[in-house]
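Justification of resources, computational component.

The compute hours requested in this renewal are based largely on the per-chain cost of generating structure records like the one below. Each record pairs the submitted sequence with a full structure-token output. That output is archived, and it is also reused by downstream analysis tasks.
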Amino acid sequence: QVQLVESGGGLVQTGGSLRLSCTASGSIYNIVMGWYRQAPGKRRELIAQITSSGSADYADSVKDRFTISRDNTKSKVYLEMSDLGVDDTAVYLCATRYRRPSDYWGQGTQVTVSS
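The structure output for this chain reads:
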């Protein structure tokens, strides 16, 4: 059983930066981790994922602006966000990927970008 807790969200102006953290209660070794976001009126979107060895993939909407990283010794996953725009406003969630029967999800942290 793994619990995930996100932190680092908040209010930021257009063009600003934020760093989100996801802390796991236990080891996340050998599991793919992802960051998702959910904005009002939109489907939940996978924006980044990272393998246990550090290989990362990004959605086109955040590529070149966001960076996902992880520290397996600390059981943490990070999402560094830069050049934020209003379209980035959403609840950001950390989750495991490809776990059966179901993935673990954090509670989410709100990111609000104001102009």
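The mean pLDDT is 96. The chain has no helices and ten strands.
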